[in-house]
Amino acid sequence: MPVTSALTSPSRTAARPWLLRRILPILGVVGLMAIGLAGTIWGPLYWSESAWAVPDDLWATLVASERLLHLDLAGLYTPPTNLVSFPGTAVILVPVAAIFDLAGLSVQAGSQGAHPVQWLIAGPCEVAISGVALFAADAIAERLGVTWPKRFVLAAASATALWNVSVRWGHPEDAVAIGLLMYAILALSGARTWRAAWLAGAAVAVQPLALLAFPVLAAAVEPRRLPGFLARAATPSVLLLGAAAAANWSATIHAVTSQPNAPTIDHPTPWIYLAPHLSDGSVAAGPARALAVVLACGCGLAAWRRWRVPRLTAEWSPDALVELLWWTAAALTLRSVFEPVMVSYYVWPPLALALVAASRDWWRLIPTAAAATGLTFMSQVSWRNPWVWWTPMVALLGLTLFFSRPWPARSAAAQALPEPGEQFAADGAPQGVD
User: Fold this and answer.
1) What is the pTM of this model?
2) Which of 246, 252, 292, 334 is the most exposed place for a label (fewest CB within 10 A)?
3) How many other C-beta atoms are found inside a 10 Å radius of the C-beta of residue 74?
4) For the chain, which residues make up each domain, given as ranges?
């Protein structure tokens, strides 16, 4: 029997209205807006504070977005933007900057005051932008044939973890990048390699963290199509970085390559003792992140070995898709393992993938959701010792991966996992893949 029957039929799901199919992520976004904004505005009252608890990181990125809106590419990586990511980080917030311009509101890096009216606009907008991760997770769950109760738990757990990225720290670029990455994996599962390449490339252009997933994605691409896949995936970042570098070479190259982070503000980890120290007291995170990319190639090699015997089908089995999600989560975890200076939202990306990978079975979904939720809130503690904070974070990440792992008895790897190559028609005869 063709493996395509194991997945939810696209024709059946497409017949439903889009709002009905995506009602759970929509509710997740709306709930995160309401609860998140209420927490930032009224939450501080429980600690006898009057100032709103808004994310300070968001405003510097919005300064970069305003400069981009006014075509000031030379100022994209100059103070006070503090931008160290790729230009796509600023691109996704250009609509918010445009709303501020139309409303006559100004924005500056750092604190906006005790009760910034800008947050009433920026908060809902960035949560809506971050919601792409929830929609991508639900789309994959739908493809896997996950039941509505499990999809509800997935949406609730995913929205809870997403709070750490969007509402708490104001980094929607991480959510957008992981959402695009999940859509790329979904496209690969349907043998749409060209679409997967553009989506994965857009993810990297928004947040280069997505580079950690490329060795795993490459393992799922047919070898003869890999050069075209990589060329398409590189295009968005090359174009955006090229434009920024042409406008201000020194600032762009310094920010993108050194990746400075401040151990006096964020959480130092044991790797800080090996990280290059910069003149301003910060450390360069770039070398450690490059090491994580190299080690992610090990995840790609492990995934490739799992793909050697079976051949690629028109649409993958659920087990093949789940295994690719899990290996991607494992690769993304490497950032938190080797980062010299951590911020609590760094733990989120692998959680998003692990939750989707665990969504088909209650016995995996419930403990994964519990571990992800516990890690989300535990990561907010302000312990400063390099070992005391980093050790439980990495341990909980490992526990989340353990709970979400597709076990051999369930994955039936010998039949489910594809090796890039052939596509099977409905009668089982092999044919070429576009």
Assistant:
1) 0.89
2) 246
3) 15
4) 3-38+128-426
